[in-house]
Amino acid sequence: MPPSQASERILQKPYSFSMQECGWREPRRALSTKRPGGPDKHKDRVGWNNHFERSIALCYDNYDFISPMEEDSRSQSWKAYDITFYNQENARLTKEIINSESHTISIALECMVYGNFKEEFKKMDIEKKKNLILEGLYRGCCLAPCENSRDLCPEMTVEGLIGDGEYNFPNLLKKLIDHDPTNHAGNLYLFEHPYIEHELRHTEAAPAELKAFLYMKILLRTYVIVAVLFETLQAHLGNAPTPITPLRPMGNTKEQKKTTQKLKEQQKKSNFHTDRSQTKEEFAQMVASCYTCYRIQERKTLKRCSKCNLVWYCSSACQATDWPQHKKTCGKKSFDPKMFAPMPANHSAQFIGCPDVVPGFVRTPALKRQIWYLSKPDSQERDYHFNVAPTRTRSLIVHPPRQITFLVARRRAMASGSVTAVHKMYTILRSQNHELYGITLDQIRGQFELEYGLKITPDTLRSADEWAPPTAQELEEEEDYLQQRHASARADYYRRR
Ligand SMILES: [Zn+2]
Ligand SMILES: [Zn+2]
Fold it and tell me: pTM score, two decimals?
């Protein structure tokens, strides 16, 4: 769903959210928004987490709605930066979220489709569950790093994630998987936030800065949730922490620093403060990376976009690559979530060979995973991927002259789930049995059955003879895709050397 639609949906959603459902046990205390310094997160994870949960509880259990347009210092933080900054931040966050969501969806699909994660999780004893979630929270929030934005995530609590409410761990994963990452229209999933929705609903006449600021909160929160989901799954699989793209705020301009300073003083006076010691340290290392290629470099060697001063690049080449996307937000004084959506042009290159879905056909999670796999840059030269063990995938290439027919069958199958097309793919692979590189016919059959929700038996094979030869257009487009794939694989090869 494109961000614009998502925020529309957020606006329409009725205001309902149950803290109990999220597993809140903390007694409701006196009104306070203060969060004093807490235990060392690296040494005392339980303490760190409890501290955080208490702070979130205080914030939400006593939530009193303050319109951000009122003259109240608690709600004026959106005035700290100007609209161009928020737009650029939102563009960057959108880019990073799409990236981390695709990783998370891929591994969640593996665990839920090829593994039996939901059941495994249910059967786990409570202590094990708690430890797993705690590890995920710690890795996702502290290593990503996005700890402070956890304040925006009332459902990210240990009790809530292990409980059996709508926002428990498997259900949050499911929300992400059910959103189709391969959908051409846009591949960003936003986790809704009832309070921010509430604010958004009351800010229709608000300045663009405020709208962009609230939208940024939704993005930040989605970033945290995805990071935690990803790291929890990694911990479950016994993998070492591999933080997904770290969150990198842009360089601060002098003006921005001044406004932040002013704001801090204002907050001090009004007895409201947040712990910024951590972000400072993170800030120092975060700015030194190229916006396009993420190459880490000394900040002074990076070049800045001279128009907006907000994005940094390692080279003119990287700046040129990013310009078609960046120009949509560079210096823009208005706010529209649509402008953060990825470029359609990049998109078609990213999803080589993947057709739009025919209305009425619902892709299974397994099929989405296949398409996601095929769309990865390093898999451009492959024709299909097969899961040969719980977390092991093998890929194969169909050799000419059958390759084109296979690709036409693949596109038909992926677009509509055509039974004939699936059987065509199967018979082509069966006929080149000796070139399957260790993938068995049973594995191929099993995977097709899972992906397309059908059965392949000797009977169905006989009855699926209605294969219509590829049309001229299909052939032309697939030839074209093949050439693009080869070019991109070649470019990749030279880049790696
Ligand atoms: Zn670069
Ligand atoms: Zn710019």
Answer: 0.71
